[in-house]
Amino acid sequence: MDSLKQIIRDIPDFPKKGIVFKDITTLLSDAKSFNRMVDLLAHRYIGEKIDQIVGIEARGFILGAALAYKLGTGITLVRKPGKLPYDTCSIDYELEYGTDTLEIHEDAFKKGDRILIADDLLATGGTMAAVVDLVDKFEVDLHECVFMAELDFLKGRDKLPPGKVFSLLNF
Ligand code: AMP
Predict the structure, then answer these.
(1) Measured from the CB, is residue 122 less than 6 Å from ligand 1?
(2) Which pLDDT tens digit goes with each residue over 97-115?
(3) What is the 3 state secondary structure string of the chain?
(4) How high is the mean pLDDT of the chain?
């Protein structure tokens, strides 16, 4: 796991001063690391009853699509406002300054679907908590929230359903 952690690049002061941005593009562009990351995560869910992966715009689409292919499921997109073409359900959530909104198609799931929500990185947990609330409007079962990486010191998992969070790499 250490080699996967090491290939993620730290970018100090991006997008603003004081933030150390974990740049996962270096992991994605390295064939061995990308394959290993997807295989390790897919291995956790093979054999589980998962009907649909939910990917969060934009980097969550990458992990979400790779897992959906491996697990033989579809992927449902959660996107920023105005991007999805059909009727949507939306959720507003708090950011450090102001609020943001995420949307999902209103016919995204079948009743009783068991879902896995994927994103690249768990930081404060605000984004994933909003998506958990968004899918909660549907009659679905949340299997787990899955991340490539987690910034432990921000305690984002405290905002998410207990026992339903998994990150491959912890920083
Ligand atoms: P959060 O809602 O704070 O958990 O983070 C929202 C999104 O912002 C995550 O899905 C990441 O894609 C991105 N993000 C937040 N903080 C960082 C960071 N330090 N490095 C890389 N990505 C980050």
Answers:
(1) yes
(2) 789 999 999 999 999 999 9
(3) CHHHHHHCEEEECCCCCCCEEEECHHHHCCHHHHHHHHHHHHHHHCCCCCCEEEEECCHHHHHHHHHHHHHCCEEEEEECCCCCCCCEEEEEEECCCCEEEEEEECCCCCCCCEEEEEEEEECCCHHHHHHHHHHCCCCCEEEEEEEEEECHHHCHHHHCCCCCEEEEEEC
(4) 97
